[in-house]
């Protein structure tokens, strides 16, 4: 509690204690021995694990699409770790199955569906794979028993800005990565609907069977939201399953101000949404929501194990939802999100989203004021992408040499920050652009710090950005 919860959240502490792999191995004494260690040594191991781990709760951890800590979620995790449940049947997990059902229904409501189905999964990547397999089963139900033989050449369509899990899912499911058609996106990273329709027609002309479109609501690098309404029009026109990977951007649905980013999501057949990101439910907490309420999810994935899903139990077996999952043992991931939602209410979760995006807007405004900082583009979400231009390059013409030198700036600064432990910030090249920083604003531990401003003015500044 002292080292992780309190100390790690202190901005004066290091966000990480960097050590190279070989040195860290030696420091940790990782060897497993024939005889056990005494408790004093075990406690020292625990302290070392904490010391050399990255403090994702630190106010200067901006490296990923998750950050910070929610104490209600943490308390819920203490409970589930102690109870050690497996969420597949009501008899062994009565409370957590009911909790999951309640959370899924509320998430479905925010998508805009009158009814639906869903399941919590170990990651958004798995949710995307579930959705692709479910769409394939809907397209050709015989594949569950007969396999791939005799099936047409199936084609998946997704944006060239999609998460890499779409490509992995096609590989894992035997569809093949060559049968993933990547649709061009515009300069802001949004899928171009006209290009989608061209690729649908191309696939059909080739004699293939396009069946699944994966749109993205909140891309990993730029934080872009695909035009869901226009994409849904095309999917309806050609009878395609529309999946929306809203793993990152789905939480904007809880904000009355920002839910417009996902306009048209109610027309999707399935949605992936990760509350462990913007809503800080704790890794991992990821749901696949499905518009179908006829039992499609269970028909697709069920194996009807007679030793687990007996139909003559003394209670309503419709609560034995585990057969909707490809897993057997399954964690009670919905509980930590439920606990946070119960504690904060929908209004509190909405404020969390609004505050993160207000701080993102504030950061953008500050970047524009400062010499040596250059935005890649105006963000629409919490992904702030920018270059830092060192003094040596500020008067140089933007030619090949300039971009070549700038390409090495972000990695060099990242290395220095990591070794100092001052801040963790991601960088990457992207779509022909040289390395730039991507700062992701999520954690409520981040505060506006405006020196030389009276407290009353500071409160007004905060209020302005919250509005």
UniProtKB/TrEMBL annotation:
One of its GO terms (biological process) is carboxylic acid metabolic process. PROSITE patterns: DDC_GAD_HDC_YDC (PS00392). GO terms for molecular function: carboxy-lyase activity; pyridoxal phosphate binding. Its cofactor is pyridoxal 5'-phosphate. Keywords: Decarboxylase, Lyase, Pyridoxal phosphate. The modification N6-(pyridoxal phosphate)lysine is found at residue 277. SUPFAM superfamilies: PLP-dependent transferases (SSF53383). Belongs to the group II decarboxylase family. Homodimer. This is Glutamate decarboxylase like 1. The lineage of its organism: Eukaryota, Metazoa, Chordata, Craniata, Vertebrata. The gene is GADL1.
């Amino acid at each position: 509690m002292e080292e992780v919860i309190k100390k790690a959240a202190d901005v004066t502490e290091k966000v990480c204690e960097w050590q190279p792999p070989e040195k860290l191995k030696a420091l940790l004494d990782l060897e497993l021995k024939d005889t056990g260690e005494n408790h004093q040594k075990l406690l020292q191991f625990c302290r070392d694990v904490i010391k050399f781990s990255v403090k994702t709760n630190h106010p200067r951890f901006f490296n990923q699409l998750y950050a910070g800590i929610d104490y209600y979620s943490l308390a819920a995790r203490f409970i589930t770790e102690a109870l050690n449940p497996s969420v597949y049947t009501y008899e062994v997990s009565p409370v957590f199955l009911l909790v999951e059902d309640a959370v899924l229904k509320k998430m479905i409501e925010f998508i805009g569906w009158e009814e639906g189905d869903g399941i919590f999964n170990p990651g958004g990547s798995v949710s995307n794979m579930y959705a692709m397999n479910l769409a394939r089963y809907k397209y050709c139900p015989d594949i569950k028993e007969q396999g791939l033989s005799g099936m047409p050449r199936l084609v998946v369509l997704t944006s060239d800005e999609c998460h890499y899990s779409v490509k992995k899912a096609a590989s894992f499911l035997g569809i093949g990565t060559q049968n993933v058609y990547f649709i061009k996106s515009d300069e802001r990273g949004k899928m171009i609907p006209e290009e989608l329709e061209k690729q649908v027609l191309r696939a059909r002309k080739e004699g293939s069977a396009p069946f699944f479109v994966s749109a993205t609501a909140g891309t990993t690098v730029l934080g872009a939201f695909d035009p869901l309404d226009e994409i849904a029009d095309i999917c309806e026109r050609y009878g395609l399953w529309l999946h929306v990977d809203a793993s990152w951007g789905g939480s904007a649905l809880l904000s009355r101000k920002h839910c417009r980013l996902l306009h048209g999501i109610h027309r999707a057949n399935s949605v992936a949404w990760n509350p462990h990101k913007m809503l800080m439910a704790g890794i991992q907490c990821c749901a696949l929501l499905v518009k179908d309420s006829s039992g499609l999810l269970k028909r697709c994935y069920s194996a009807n194990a007679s030793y687990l899903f007996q139909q003559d139990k003394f209670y309503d077996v419709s609560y034995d939802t585990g057969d909707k999952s490809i897993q057997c043992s399954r964690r009670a991931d919905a509980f930590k999100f439920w606990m946070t939602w119960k504690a904060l209410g929908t209004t509190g979760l909405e404020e969390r989203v609004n505050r993160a995006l207000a701080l993102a807007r504030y950061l953008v405004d500050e970047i524009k004021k400062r010499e040596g900082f250059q935005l890649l583009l105006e963000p629409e979400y919490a992904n702030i992408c920018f270059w830092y231009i060192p003094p040596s390059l500020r008067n140089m013409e933007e030619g090949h040499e300039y971009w070549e030198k700038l390409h090495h700036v972000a990695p060099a600064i990242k290395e220095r920050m990591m070794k100092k432990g001052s801040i963790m910030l991601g960088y990457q090249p992207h779509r022909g652009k040289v390395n730039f920083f991507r700062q992701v604003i999520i954690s409520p531990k981040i505060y506006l710090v405006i020196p030389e401003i009276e407290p009353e003015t500071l409160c007004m500044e905060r209020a302005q950005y919250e509005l």
